Amino acid sequence: MKSVIVILCICFSTALHSQILNVESLRKVTDTSGWSGYVGANFALKRNVNDFVTFGSDVHIQYKNKPHLILFKNDVDFQKIEGQDFSNSFISHLRYNYRFHPKIAWEFFLQGQYNKVNLIDFRGLMGAGPRFKLTDSEKYKFYAGTLVMFEYEEVADGITPTQRDFRGSAYLSFSLYPTDRITLVSTTYYQPDLGGFSDYRISSQSSLVVTLINSLALTTRYTFVYDAFPAVGIPNSQYDFTTGLTYSFD
Fold it and tell me: For 37, how many CA atoms within 13 A lie in the half-sphere containing its CB?
């Protein structure tokens, strides 16, 4: 296994950690088998009018051995101001992809998350479904997926009961490669409650990656999330804009 390379962490970021993980952004395009991915960490301790402590880590590991693909994602964010927790979150995701046809793969995944800002004490997901490759071009790639997942969710608003339900998860994703140094990736998810379609979530994320030198790239990402029934006191829609540098390996 090759050495893990540290990601040069995000330079500018708002304080949103998406409720729907964009797995498409984790799929590292490579024609070779073996390990790839990145690991990042950051820590800051600051005092001015208040005392600030922040810590974050971001791990993405991918193993490919045709027709098998395994993805692992673990993201942690911790912020404390004057001894009070301000924004804590984590998300862990494990996915197995088995390609049994040149254009069709079957996927299984497990996910757990916590998000203080969105009052999510715990959300656990387990699901499976097919993934379809819609194009053959190397300059532009389109994918679609339809999954069914079981969701267990506890929220901290003091009103909403524990949720146990089945949700669908349909997505459309495309990747464009106009030049060797520029990549544009966009994915939109629609996740309705199968017991009542008025309860749904939508997430859309678009990323622009510009390679600077070798594996060093400038990444700009915009995410929009809409939840028809969030925890009490949480807005239906949220967005996030980040820009940073990444160093990847394969």
Answer: 22
Any domain includes 2: no
Query: What total number of domains does the chain contain?
Result: 1
For residue 5, tell me if it sits in a domain. no
Question: Which residue in 58, 42, 50, 53 sits closest to 79, CA to CA?
Answer: 53
Task: Show the tokens assigned to 89.
Answer: 């979150």
How much is the pLDDT for 249? 61
Residue 185: CB atoms within 10 Å: 21
CATH code, domain carrying 226 = 2.40.160.40
How many residues does the structure list for the chain?
Answer: 250
The residue segments making up the domain with residue 142 are 10-247
Distance of CA 46 to the CA centre of its chain: 29
**What single letter denotes the amino acid at residue 82?**
E
The answer as to whether 4 is a domain residue is no
Give CA–CA dist 155/90, Å, rounded. 15
pLDDT tens digits along 104-123 = 999 999 999 999 888 999 99
Q: Is 125 helix (H, G, I), strand (E, B) or coil?
A: strand
Residue 79 counted as domain residue: yes
Q: Which two tokens stand for residue 133?
A: 């490759």
Apex CA 13: angle with CA 246 and CA 37, to 5°?
25
Helix (H, G, I), strand (E, B) or coil at 45: strand
pTM above 0.85, yes or no: no
Pick out the chain residues at pLDDT < 70: 1-32, 83, 85-86, 248-250
At 146 the pLDDT is: 95
Can you give the pLDDT at residue 30? 55
∠ CA 241-243-247, nearest 5°, is 140
